[in-house]
Structures are given as structure tokens and as C-alpha cells.
């Protein structure tokens, strides 16, 4: 009788290679690996595929997901100015639902009973993978080997790998950090960073230059948007994945895009995280500046509140959920007139918006100017304030600080 099958999210690193062996030996399953390229600093995807095949997997599918990730996920993240707790632009939270979707597709293709991932039991990513899988196919069962096995730390995994003929990458015990990266940036945690008082060491940063080592003259860049989507950089039309790559370089070379923060994980603990998100922060900064002139004021205020709900839903693994779908529909509606150009100035680790223009700009020079020929009727403001403060004045007389009630 043929064995049951499991589709594993495989990165080619030590964790997921050990997962392959463990699923074969401990669970008696045939393994199919899926290795998604979402723009991580992946070297040697072919070698990783070969490594999986050498471990005896049924198949190892290496999928180039960069454009799907950009067009389906980053576009929505930009529309929602995605910032969990107002500070983290959600890079890992954006890639997991796409990888989960591919696991489900490949599971259907192979008639697999299970999908598996290499996430630990105390992070957000396990929840994101599993919530997405359940939303896409509630019948599929999930196995999380790292949560189940008794390999407590990296040296335990290395020992298991040696004992089971799993090739161990050189320096597997040396890497001081846990890294997750994709087009949208790079997350750095663990090691020296686990003490939130420790300043990150220089070796934590890869995509961004130390601001002290950046050019002594500013760099100006223009980003063009159409209906909320970035379409060109410095006049050059590009697809979104190329725009993100171009901006990662421009911003990173100017030392912009480093974050060092403590965030609240879904599982209830606070976690110190460093991120390099040069392109992401640049695009969100520019996009917000364009919205400032293109989105009507009341709508903008409501959007800013709902952006937090969007980011929290995505952070918490609710990419495929009715709440997130409805929020996306709201966000999409707000983007219809977000078309125009934003001019940015990078200098020594900073990025400032220094210009914005749009054919749909609601900024009215005649109303805003302090020149004599302004179209704003200042005399009308007296009546406006009279009515606007009516409720406040009534309160002040009856209950306010100088009222009889307050004196009593
Ligand atoms: N804390 C971030 C998040 O939950 C990043 C997680 C990154 N994962 C990693 N293995 N370093 O989205």
C-alpha cells in the first residue's frame, strides 16, 4: 500500500531539511517539498532542490512567486499602508498566506492528506500558515514537526541531522540570528537581540548601509502611483516587484529603512525585532503623502483607523477571512483617485517627502493661500464657530469648570 503524503513548506535550511527526514521516519509519510521564491536572498535554489531529492522526497517544487507576491499581496499592503502596531510593515505576515496557498494547491495536485511547516510553537508564523490552510481547505491536516519533536535547540537539530544523514550547511551552529526575508524586507531576531537593551551589532544589517557611511549629498527620487499602485520610479515604468527591488537599493544605500522595536506577538509575548524594510517604508511614506492630497478628509480619518484593523488582521493570520476581505474592499475604494507623483529626498538615514502632485489633488491653492486674493471667506468662519461650539457652550454653562454645579 502506498504511503500517505505530506506537502512541506521547505526553505532548504537546516530546520526544514530535518523536517523532511522526521516526516519520513517518524510519521511514515511520503514528502513533497514546496520552496517558494518570494524574493528572499536565496542562493542556490537548485542545490536546495537537489538536497531535498537526495533525501528521497517525491518531488520538490521551486516556485517563483515574486510577481504574485507583489501584485496580490504587496499591492494590498501599500493600499492599507500596512503597519502593525503603527511600526512593523508586516513582511513575514504577508508571505505566509501565499506560501500556504501554494501548499494547499500542491496538496490537491498530489492528493496529500497533510501539509507541514517548520515554524516553532511560539511564533506568529505557525498561526498564519495554519489559519490560511484551514481557510482554503478545512479538511487538510497540518503537521508542525518543530512543535512536536524534542530537539530543543540548534545543536540538537545538528546532532539529529548527523545521525540521520541530513547534510548540515556549513556554519549551521554559528548563525547568531533567526532571519526571515522577502522582497518587502528582512526580519532579524534572536541571539544578541534577545536583550532589548542591546544595540544591534553591525552584522545584523544586510540591506541597509550604516547612515554614517552613506553619501554626503542627498538623493532625490520620484515615485509615480496609479490608483494607489506604484508604477514608476524616476520616470521609469516598472512592474511592482522591480520597483520594490529598485527602492530597496536606493533607500538602503542611503541608510533608510532600519527598525528596532518590541512588538506584541499573537501568542501573547513581547518580542524584540529588528527589521530592514527600505523599499517598504519608502513606498508607504510616499503613498501616504499622495493620499494626503487625493483622499477626502473624513474618508482619510476613517481609513487611518481601519488601517490598524487591516494590519492586525494580517498580522494575526487572517489574510483569508471575511473581515480582511471587507477591509480590502474599503481600501480599494479609497484608492480610485490616488494617482500622482511623490518626490522624496534621502539623506543620511532619512527619507523626507519634499513634493507631491496629482491630477485629482483636493489641495486647493486658492483656499489655502494667505494671499489677499484667497477664495476662502474668512467672515463665514464666525458663524461656523458659533454653531460648532453650541453643544460645548451649553455644557460649559451647566456642567463646565465655571458653572454653578462645579462651584457647589
Ligand atoms: N515577528 C515578525 C512577524 O511575526 C517576524 C517573524 C520572522 N521570523 C523569523 N523566523 N525571524 O511577522
UniProtKB/TrEMBL annotation:
Name all Arginosuccinate synthase-like N-terminal domain ranges.
5-167
Compartments it resides in = Cytoplasm
Going by the record, the broad EC class of this enzyme is ligase
Biological process per Gene Ontology, one example term: argininosuccinate metabolic process
Stretches assigned to the Arginosuccinate synthase C-terminal domain: 177-394
Which positions bind ATP?
A: 9-17, 118
Positions of L-aspartate binding? 120, 124-125
EC number annotated for this UniProt entry: 6.3.4.5
The cross-references to Pfam families, in alphabetical order and at most eight, read: Arginosuc_syn_C, Arginosuc_synth
Which reaction is this enzyme known to catalyze? L-citrulline + L-aspartate + ATP = 2-(N(omega)-L-arginino)succinate + AMP + diphosphate + H(+)
Q: Name one GO cellular component term.
A: cytoplasm
Q: What is this protein called?
A: Argininosuccinate synthase
Keyword annotations of the record: Amino-acid biosynthesis, Arginine biosynthesis, ATP-binding, Cytoplasm, Ligase, Nucleotide-binding
CDD domains documented for this protein: ASS
According to the record's subunit comment, the protein's assembly and interactions are:
Homotetramer.
Cross-referenced InterPro entries: Arginosuc_syn_C, Arginosuc_syn_N, Arginosuc_synth, Arginosuc_synth_CS, Arginosuc_synth_type_1_subfam, AS_cat/multimer_dom_body, Rossmann-like_a/b/a_fold
Question: Annotated pathway, please?
Answer: Amino-acid biosynthesis; L-arginine biosynthesis; L-arginine from L-ornithine and carbamoyl phosphate: step 2/3
Q: Where does L-citrulline bind?
A: 88, 124, 128, 178, 263, 275
In alphabetical order, the GO MF annotations are: argininosuccinate synthase activity; ATP binding
Q: Which domain of life is it from?
A: Bacteria
Which family does the UniProt entry place this protein in? Belongs to the argininosuccinate synthase family. Type 1 subfamily.
Question: Major location, coarse class?
Answer: cytoplasm
Q: Quick check: keyword Ligase in the entry?
A: yes
Q: Does the keyword Chaperone apply?
A: no
Amino acid at each position: 500500500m502506498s504511503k500517505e503524503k505530506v506537502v512541506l513548506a521547505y526553505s532548504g535550511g537546516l530546520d526544514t531539511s530535518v523536517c523532511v527526514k522526521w516526516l519520513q521516519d517518524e510519521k511514515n509519510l511520503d514528502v513533497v517539498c514546496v520552496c517558494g521564491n518570494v524574493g528572499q536572498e536565496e542562493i542556490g535554489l537548485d542545490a536546495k532542490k537537489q538536497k531535498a531529492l537526495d533525501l528521497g522526497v517525491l518531488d520538490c517544487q521551486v516556485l517563483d512567486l515574486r510577481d504574485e507576491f507583489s501584485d496580490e499581496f504587496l499591492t494590498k499592503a501599500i493600499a492599507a499602508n500596512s503597519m502593525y502596531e503603527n511600526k512593523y510593515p508586516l513582511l513575514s505576515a504577508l508571505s505566509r498566506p501565499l506560501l500556504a496557498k501554494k501548499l494547499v494547491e500542491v496538496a490537491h495536485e498530489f492528493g496529500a492528506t497533510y501539509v507541514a511547516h517548520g515554524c516553532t510553537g511560539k511564533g506568529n508564523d505557525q498561526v498564519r500558515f495554519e489559519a490560511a490552510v484551514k481557510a482554503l481547505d478545512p479538511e487538510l491536516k497540518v503537521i508542525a514537526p518543530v512543535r512536536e519533536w524534542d530537539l530543543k535547540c540548534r545543536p540538537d537539530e545538528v546532532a539529529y541531522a548527523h545521525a540521520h544523514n541530513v547534510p548540515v550547511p556549513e556554519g549551521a551552529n554559528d548563525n547568531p540570528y533567526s532571519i526571515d526575508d522577502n522582497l518587502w524586507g528582512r526580519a532579524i531576531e534572536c541571539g544578541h537581540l534577545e536583550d532589548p537593551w542591546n544595540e544591534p551589532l553591525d552584522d545584523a544589517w544586510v540591506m541597509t548601509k550604516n547612515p554614517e557611511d552613506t553619501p554626503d549629498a542627498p538623493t532625490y527620487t520620484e515615485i509615480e502611483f496609479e490608483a494607489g499602485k506604484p508604477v514608476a520610479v524616476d520616470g521609469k515604468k516598472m512592474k511592482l516587484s522591480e520597483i520594490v527591488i529598485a527602492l530597496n537599493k536606493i533607500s538602503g544605500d542611503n541608510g533608510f529603512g532600519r527598525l528596532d522595536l518590541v512588538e506584541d506577538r499573537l501568542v501573547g509575548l513581547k518580542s524584540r525585532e529588528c527589521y530592514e524594510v527600505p523599499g517598504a517604508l519608502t513606498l508607504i511614506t510616499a503613498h501616504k503623502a499622495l493620499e494626503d492630497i487625493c483622499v477626502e478628509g473624513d474618508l482619510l480619518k476613517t481609513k487611518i483607523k481601519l488601517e490598524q484593523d487591516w494590519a492586525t488582521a494580517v498580522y494575526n493570520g487572517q489574510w483569508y477571512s471575511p473581515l480582511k476581505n471587507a477591509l480590502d474592499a474599503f481600501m480599494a475604494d479609497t484608492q480610485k483617485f490616488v494617482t500622482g507623483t511623490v518626490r522624496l529626498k534621502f539623506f543620511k538615514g532619512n527619507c523626507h517627502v519634499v513634493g507631491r502632485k496629482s491630477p485629482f489633488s483636493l489641495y486647493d491653492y486658492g483656499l489655502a493661500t494667505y494671499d489677499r486674493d484667497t477664495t476662502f471667506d474668512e467672515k463665514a468662519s464666525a458663524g461656523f464657530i458659533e454653531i460648532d461650539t453650541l453643544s460645548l457652550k451649553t455644557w460649559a454653562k451647566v456642567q463646565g469648570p465655571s458653572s454653578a454645579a462645579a462651584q457647589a
